[in-house]
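hiii, so i know i said id send this last week but things got crazy w the move. better late than never?? heres the sequnce for the chain we talked about at the cafe, plus the structure i predicted for it. fair warning i was half asleep when i ran it
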Amino acid sequence: MTDDTSTGSATDTASSSEEVVRETPLTERIEAILLIIDEPIGLVALAAAVGSPVPAVRQAIETLVDDYDGRGHGPRRGFELREVGGGWRLYVREDHDDLVAEFVGGQAPARLSQAALETLAVIAYKQPVTRSQVASIRAVNVDSVVRTLLARGLITELFADSETGAINYGTTDALLQHLGINSLDELPPISPLLDDGADGFDEGTIR
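okay and structure toks below
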């Protein structure tokens, strides 16, 4: 004999679950996706992810931006929803960059990005060196990377240039410990690692 009651319960449960999904506010579904993405997501992709029309998603995004910026019913948040490169993603507000960098620096060591490794290498071999000199060698802005290396305790401010006031940076003992060496003299020669043996470094480079 078929248990109609059991079958009915299962059907009711499934229907209830579908109703919950349908009744979940669009802004909540969008937030759920934004919290797990590593790169900005475009409106079309986001609309497909949450199962809603692009115009509705665009309007919901505008609502979230206003809400996070304090133009809604609540206070301004410590993060913001920003459009970058044609996509949307949550970012820490610039006001809190130093706070977050300090917190991250106090956590378990994480792998440095390629940009951070390259910047650290320039400072290690060229020190003492200013931020602008490092930027010139790498041909990119290194402000955020330098802040990260400072927060990790891998580099430090050595002194300020008497004429320009520019801060000169150098590596710390913490870097030596991570590399397993006793002094900078034990760093490998840089010449064999460069195409012409001199790019970006002068005769004063540590060898």
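btw Residues 40 and 89 are 5 Å apart (CA to CA). thought thatd interest u
miss u guys!!
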